[in-house]
């Protein structure tokens, strides 16, 4: 029964995607919404049933398995399409289906007057299906299918409004940059396959434990890290995420905040014994996370577009998760992944509600004073901001970030210090956004109301963003360890907690950040213009990674391409074409339409064939 | 070896075939081309009969019957086309103007 | 001396065939074609296939040739047609086809020379209609059906093509 539910959860949105795509855009909005949100809702329902069953009577092996079919079976390698439900995929499943359902519900309201709504929901449900495949796969090859599936859906949805060139360019950029990572990841998978003879996760990890970590394993780990870095928008392949905000806001909420971009975190957590056996890789993961979280937080401080602020914030928060992974605090990474999905989806959806009501403006300096006009959205955004900043005790973000900080302290106090600095910056940039958008003089008069269908997901996620952290608390506050206990069969016991003053530091820094933000951007005396010095400009452009890549990679590549436009290979194919054309012209003469000529050619062919045939 | 051996019959068939082909290729009149085709068909039929005689099998004559029906059908259709062409304003029955049939 | 009919008929057939393809008047060619068919019937008889010989006379030289004669009559050919045929048969026209046919003849004859000497056929009894009929309505019944299909198709298409011809007019409805 349970093992049967597993493929059904995937099949539900997949079927919906098929129906929506096959309608070829002719399906009216209401059925599109019902099918799109309903199928994911059904998946969420089944996921809850499955989760309850799993928690009440855990399977003896610690995981449910459902092998769908054997994909390929050759000497020395076998691959199956197989699903598995263990605590890690259980958590991910609940996040994907639960948050996914809420966001799709929200999208029903957000997209209701879009003519292409069927295509939108088709892509969204396809994305959910692909993400579930990614999460459920017990075989890395089928995981890779899901990995590419979410990539293509991300591409399709970033460029959803494809009549605007900028959107399409952004989509292409996201696709190409993640493709670089995907290529690395595929190489890594192949390396692992040559070691283990299969890509089954359990067998691969067993090979890691039975064979000492050698250079090959290290290379494979780094290649997989490349894939994870590109997918999760970490330095140095982070440039695509801010541009990806060109897509509709529900897409940003679901794909580029809550689920897809955390796939890299999931991948590393899934293969954590491999990474744990290679200290260099662990250090690299932690450093990448730290650098990303600081750079992205710095960028977020000076952005003027509300969605770009949230995009940089997403990069920064995933940087936290990478930091946690790199310090071996696996539970902390997954915990933060979950809470981040709650509060970042909430923030994006609240931002979407604001954008809808201020005539699709996204510049925060054109908003202002919206707290009175839309108190509900303000409350939701405030809840999300508090969770993101990590307001102590009250919010989910506090607990998960605290856990990461503890892990970082154990690994290296320098990492801890960097992460604490990041937390400080996080509180500043998000409350800068809050103060500028919701307080002060009003620049744009909002119109309309936020409908119930958009409000319900906001309320649900606001509650989750505030209370979702209570499933895991430090011992100093309350000995609750639901998530750690759930995940401990997979990750082992969590680390012991550090001294109490760590907790105090982690609690006070966000408060200090909010205070600084209040001092700088308070309604009466705060500045209402974006900073314009050189450093701010650099940070606003994402530290100019785009320009750097343009100079270092893109331009040499295109120059090389232009130089090489008529190379020998080209000549070869051109010559083939020319020969074919000339031959066509010659043989075309034969088609004169004269019966006797044709008969003559037939006779000549017969004679030649005979002469060849009778040659002694 | 008798002169009436299948090998000699095959020689005759070859000769007839070549002559028929000569007619098809050289004549411009469709009627004459059709007659030449009849000669070629007969050459093929003769080859079958000769083969039947060589192995003393009745299958040769069976195949001859097939060729006979083929030739009958071909003559019927071909002659109908010739009549049609003739009545449609091409009394010369010139095969080389066949490429101007369209329209 | 039993070879005499074979040699005779063969020579007549070969010469008559050459006459067919070289005549300028259609009726002459047609008559020579009848000669070819009749002499071929003789050759068949000499090869021990009396049934085929009879069919050749009755169907080919009879029915099919009558068809040709009818058509030639309907075409209403005259002196001008003969002159045009003469004009079309300029010597230069024959070079290419003759070359091709000659090559074909040489190639086929070379092949025939490689055939090992055959057993004497004249010792064998002729194959009568009975054995042919047994074969035709035994294992080859399907091909008989196919032949009937072919004839039906020929009938239908000839009827269709000739449908709108009215007398010797333009044929346009």
Gross morphology of chain B is elongated
Mean pLDDT of chain A: 88
Number of helices of chain A: 25
Strand order of the largest sheet of chain A: 1-2
Q: Structural class of the secondary structure composition of chain B?
A: mainly alpha
The amount of helix of chain B comes to over 70%
Q: Point out poorly predicted stretches of chain A.
A: none
What is the global morphology of chain A? Answer: globular
Rg of chain B (C-alpha, Å): 17 Å
Give the ordered list of helices and strands of chain A. Answer: HHEEHHHHHHHHHHHHHHHHHHHHHHH
- The CATH architecture designation of chain B is Orthogonal Bundle
Number of discrete domains of chain B: 1
- SS content category of chain A: mainly alpha
Which CATH class of chain B? Mainly Alpha
Mean pLDDT of chain B: 86
**Count of helical segments of chain B?**
3
Largest sheet of chain B: none
Quick overview:
Chain B is an all-alpha fold and 103 residues long. In chain B, 74% of the residues lie in helices and 0% in strands. With 173 residues, chain C is mainly α.
Task: Give an account of the 3D structure.
The complex is a heterotrimer of chains A (616), B (103) and C (173). With 616 residues, chain A is mainly α. Chain A has 25 helices and 2 strands. The mean pLDDT of chain A is 88. With 103 residues, chain B is mostly helical. Chain B has helices at 6-26, 30-55, 59-87. With 173 residues, chain C is mainly α. Helix content of chain C is 75%, strand content 0%. Chain C is built from 7 helices and no strands. Chain C has helices at 3-22, 26-46, 50-75, 79-88, 91-114, 129-136, 141-161. In chain C, helix 1 (3-22) packs antiparallel against helix 2 (26-46) and helix 2 packs antiparallel against helix 3 (50-75). In chain C, 31% of the residues are buried.
